[in-house]
From TrEMBL:
Domain of life of the native organism: Bacteria
InterPro entries: Acyl_CoA_acyltransferase, Bact_Acetyltransf, GNAT_dom
Protein name stated in the entry: GNAT superfamily N-acetyltransferase
Pfam families assigned: Acetyltransf_10
Entry keyword annotation includes tRNA processing: no
């Protein structure tokens, strides 16, 4: 069961396909390199480990994995893909990455809302994730709480976070703010 694709302002939510993989690859790597400086601190070894599997080939294959729910936000006026989000099995949010050119325009919040709705539709009563330092305040602002000490991922600290979801709770699938 999937949620209905939707529009929000100039952004349309899509399920990315193989032809989108090169653009998603570029935006994901740009988001890591330019927005997550607090996490990678410019270290080439960390950047390499973090970005090396974000190739068009890998993404193109991953987009067809039936256990994964991929969503992307397309900016209508320009046609550019502004952000990408990924919900894995077990209600784990695996990614929310926005292109640096579109930060602060509601794309991250929109993708998070869509992934939470997909998790509810899949029968989950909570979502979990491991947050970058960069993303921590964003997730807190959307009702996520840290559940333990940071663990390592690609050489950067990743904070475990959780948010309870309820189909009858007006806050579920919506921003906390
Ligand atoms: C974190 C990220 C996804 C936020 O995306 P965005 O499109 O800029 O966020 P939005 O514009 O949707 O912001 C939504 C809300 O979260 C808040 N917010 C965003 N980033 C925040 C931060 N770092 N700290 C606190 N609040 C934040 C905004 O103020 C906004 O609140 P408002 O609706 O009351 O104005 C984006 O900066 C990004 O891609 N960062 C790099 C990748 C990353 O670290 N992703 C998390 C991986 S675990």
């Amino acid at each position: 069961m999937t949620e209905t694709p939707r529009h929000d302002g100039p952004f349309e939510i899509i399920a990315p396909c193989a032809t989108d993989a090169p653009e998603v690859s570029v935006l994901w790597c740009a988001s890591i390199e330019r927005l997550c400086v607090r996490d990678h601190q410019g270290r080439p070894d960390i950047l390499r480990a973090w970005t090396e599997n974000k190739t068009p080939e890998h993404l193109s294959a991953a987009f067809t994995d039936p256990t994964l729910t991929w969503r992307a936000a397309r900016h209508g006026p320009s046609g550019a893909i502004a952000g990408v989000g990924l919900l894995g099995p077990e209600g784990i949010i695996r990614a929310v990455y926005v292109h640096p050119a579109f930060v602060g325009q509601g794309v991250g919040g929109l993708l998070l809302q869509i992934l939470e709705r997909a998790a509810i539709a899949a029968g989950h009563d909570a979502v979990t994730l491991e947050s970058t330092e960069t993303g921590h305040g964003f997730y807190q602002a959307h009702g996520y709480v840290q559940t333990g000490p940071a663990v390592g991922c690609f050489g950067v600290p990743a904070r475990p976070m959780r948010k309870a979801l309820s189909p009858t709770d007006p806050q579920s699938g919506r921003s906390a703010s």
